Each structure stands twice: as structure tokens, then as C-alpha cells.
Amino acid sequence: MIREHTVMTSDMPSSEAKSGLSVGKIAMVLAIGVAVAAFFYFDLGRFLSLQTLKDNRDDLLSFTETHSAAAAALFVLIYIAVAGLSLPGAVILTLAGGFLFGFVWGTLFVNLGATTGATLAFLASRYLLRDWVERKFGKWLGPVQQGFEKNAFSYLMTLRLIPLFPFFVVNLVSGLTRMNVGAYVAATAIGIIPGSFVYAYAGRQLGAINSLKDIASPGVIGAFVLLGLLALVPNLYKKWSGKPA
């Protein structure tokens, strides 16, 4: 009886840990779900449109000039929320950053908010989904995981530089890999600089922009694609020269 009681007692922490992990995941899913649902239910996306930005530019600029520190902090927090919850509106926020803070500070604030939000999305995806994905598809994903892990920085840099890949998709899919968090943060922070700079710079000419297509011209997209391909050059060289990656 005593031994049975001891065994049962020793099993309790393990069961509680599993239960706590499950409750934690459920709580996170609910919190994310409520936040996303509230965004669409209250139609908060209307505040993140080009027309709304242009209609309110004088008020926004006045507030920024009067409360510069508060405006910068609020801007970064909003960007973190949008990127972290994979909500639409990041492009408009980047334009707003350039318009309100100038293209240099605007690029810096955008980079801080976008990188932080992307990292939160990455960690949430890893915490909620990676174990399940590896249990379900580990047999097929094993070689892919190993290859991505060895060259993760270059691969992610390419995905960040080429605007054809949605930002939020890259965040979530990266969380399912075995990529190191530090490498993810560095590749994201560096990889989004060109795009952030282009849109923040365009924000300085906000009045002349009638559509986002005015910014993302074929020439600009082509330049991003070339930058993305350049990020793969070191890996291709190692592969062709027979050196280990």
C-alpha cells in the first residue's frame, strides 16, 4: 500500500505538468482568437487603410509633434500587435511611420515593431503547433528540417527580402521548424530593412499616393527578388564547391 501510494504521488507532478501545458495552450489560443475576432467584429481594420491615413494625417502629425515619445511608443506597440496577431495593415503602418517620423526613424520604429511582433508569432506557432506537426509528419519533414536548420539564416533572409511571400505566413511556418530563435530575429530584422525603408520613404510623399500599387512597382519588386536571391549565393557556393554548409 505504501509503495503504491508512493508511485501514485510521484506520478502526480507529471500529470499536472501535462495538464498545465494543455491549459496554457488552450488559454493562448483563446486569447489570440478573442483578439483577432475583436479586430474584425469592431472593424478596426478601417483605421488601417490608406484613405483613413490620408484623411487624418494633419491630426496624426500634430499629435506626433506634440507628444513625440508617446507617439513613437504607441506606434511600435500597435505594430507589434498587428504583426504578432497576423492582422492586415502592416503596409499602411509602415507608410504612417515614414510620414510621421521620417524615413530613417520610421524605418527604425517599423523594424522594431515588426521584428518583435514576428518573433511573438514565431514563438506562438512553435509553442502551439510544432510538437503536433513533428509527431504527425516528422517522418517526411525530418530531412527538410535538417536542411533548413543548417541554412536557416540565408533561407529566411531570402523569404524576408522577396515580397512575394506573405509576412505572416513566413512567421508561422518558421515556428514549425527547428530554427534558432536568435537566427530568426537577426534574419528578420535585417531582411525587412529594404522593404521597410521603401515604404517608409514613400510615406513622406503620402499626398501623392493614391494606391499601394504606386509603391510596389514591378521594378521595385524585381529589385527585392534579386536581393533575396543574393542571400542564397553563399549556400549555393558551398553546395557547388563541395564544402559543408
Could you describe the 3D structure shown?
- About 7% of the residues have low confidence.
- This protein is 80% helix and 0% strand.
- It has one domain.
- It has 245 residues and is mainly α.
- The chain starts with a helix and ends with a helix.
Q: Please give the share of residues in helix.
A: over 70%
Q: What can be said about the biggest beta sheet?
A: none
- Number of helical regions: 11
Strand content is under 5%
Task: Note poorly predicted spans.
Answer: 4-20
How many beta-strand runs? 0
Terminal residue distance: 58 Å
Mean pLDDT across the residues is 81
Q: Give the class from helix and strand content and strand pairing.
A: mainly alpha
Determine the oligomeric state from the structure: single chain
What would the principal axes of the Cα set say about the shape?
globular
Q: Spell the H/E element sequence.
A: HHHHHHHHHHH
CA-based gyration radius: 22 Å
Number of domains: 1
Keywords:
245 residues; mainly alpha
What topology does this entry show?
Elements: H1 2-41, H2 50-55, H3 57-66, H4 68-84, H5 90-150, H6 152-161, H7 167-174, H8 181-191, H9 193-203, H10 218-230, H11 233-241
